[in-house]
Amino acid sequence: MSNQQFVSRFVRAGAYKMHYIEWGDGIPVVMVHGGGPGAAGEFGWGHNVGALGRHGRAIAVDQIGFGLSDKPLDKEFSHQFMAEQLAVFIDTLCLDEVYVTGNSLGAYVAARYALDHPGRVKKLLLVSSGTIATGMGIEMGMTPGMKKLVAYDGTKEGLRNFISGIQHHPERISEERLEKRWQYAQLPGVTEVQASFMNFFRNRRVNEPQAAQWFDLRHRLPKLDIPMHFIWGRHDVFATPEMADQLKELLPNATFEWFEDSGHVCQNDEPELYNEVALKFFFGV
Length: 285
Fold this sequence. Notes:
- The chain has helices at 41-45, 49-53, 79-92, 105-116, 130-135, 144-150, 156-163, 175-185, 190-207, 209-215, 241-250, 266-269, 271-283; strands spanning 7-13, 16-24, 28-32, 57-61, 98-103, 121-127, 228-233, 255-259.
- It has 285 residues and is α/β, with parallel strands linked by helices.
- The longest helix has 18 residues, at 190-207.
- It starts with 6 loop residues before the first strand and ends with a helix.
- The relative contact order is 0.16.
- The mean pLDDT is 95.
């Protein structure tokens, strides 16, 4: 497994304190993690920040409501709120032009940022995102991985079970890493944020026209005119390979690549391969 190289930092981004890890200097690569209990920049990209940081400035943010970032309970945790707060975070760090990579929910937030801030994102690398597929009209349904997310009961064993739904090789996660992620999942506000997010995704997005219209990507993402590359795990049981096949037909402006020994979090299942692909895509090395 890749060595983890990064430093931990906090910044006041608008109204909220945001946490991130980073390594390196040069062209910034903003890395946006997915959802689920205990999710954070470290657990999404800890095996990748050091490698990308040898050629640029790799920045893995804890999204608002996740990790060590603030969890404001007076806000609805919609995808819009998360994308808007990502924009504030990037502005706070004075990043004029960025490369962006995102996984799952984080891939949707990354794509929304690119769509809403044209000219700021130069390249977009997206990993296994059922949220983007849903935004393109491909409903996920209750996949085996989604069932494990819904079944999460707040225990460490429940977290281990959830991770087995997103990672093809959960046995590679050390007990120390699992313990730290579980501690993140116990932080104040985590349960409320997760409930708010799930209410938006499973209820308001489906039943309210305004929320549905905002979430929809069908009229915008196919027209995005920057390099956009998808990585998808062949063993993904959360956002299945069939979803990727459908998405590929809807996004002729994007390229797709399969990771043969990965689940939903390719950058954790095959970190060396992800790093190789990302370095070539972003930096040509």
